[in-house]
Amino acid sequence: MSQVTLPITLVNKVLTHAQHSPEEEVCGLISAKGGVPGALYPIANVADVPEKLFTMDPAAQIEAMRRMRESGEELFAIYHSHPHAPAEPSARDLAEAAYPEALYLIISLNIEGVLEMRGFRLHDGVVERVDLEVA
């Protein structure tokens, strides 16, 4: 299992985003500069059933990727929440994983009073768990 270190300030922003919409899946992108994750790009979820699925707003996703490029950043991670499911990739998450180089972060709000965030690499139908260290 590989390991990734995430800054505590970034983790707090992702978890806060998830907590602000506890009944809907939230989603977004995280960029890195020089391999160090730093900026958060929350993206609106435009799925027909946002309580169970996420679909990033295409225009907002394109805009976030453009801003990353202009800032000399690269895509580091894609995150989304599961309001009523574990922090594990669903079959749909795996089928729609289009960025094999990105870390996929899943936040579960399914645990009473506790948030859980797990990291994965999703590629070619394979799920690889990534150990997250917060610093």
List keywords for this structure.
135 residues, alpha/beta, Cytidine Deaminase, domain 2, seven-stranded mixed β-sheet, 3 helices, 23% helix, globular
Regions with little confidence, pLDDT below 50 for 5+ residues: none
Mean pLDDT: 93
* CATH topology grouping: Cytidine Deaminase, domain 2
CATH fourth-tier homologous superfamily: Cytidine Deaminase, domain 2
The CATH level-2 architecture is identified as: 3-Layer(aba) Sandwich
The total beta strand count reads: 7
Radius of gyration: 14 Å
The secondary structure category is alpha/beta
Q: Tell me the helix content.
A: 10-25%
Cα distance spanning the termini: 19 Å
> Which overall shape is indicated by the principal axes computed on the Cα atoms?
globular
Major sheet:
7 strands, mixed
Order of helices and strands: EHEEHEHEEE
Number of helices: 3
Protein model, in words:
The protein is of the alpha/beta class and 135 residues long. The chain has a single domain (2-134), classed as Cytidine Deaminase, domain 2, CATH 3.40.140.10. Helices cover 23% and strands 42% of the residues. The chain is built from three helices and seven strands; from the N terminus they run βαββαβαβββ. The chain has a seven-stranded mixed sheet with strand order 1-7-6-5-4-2-3, with helices on both faces. β6 and β7 (126-134) form a beta hairpin.
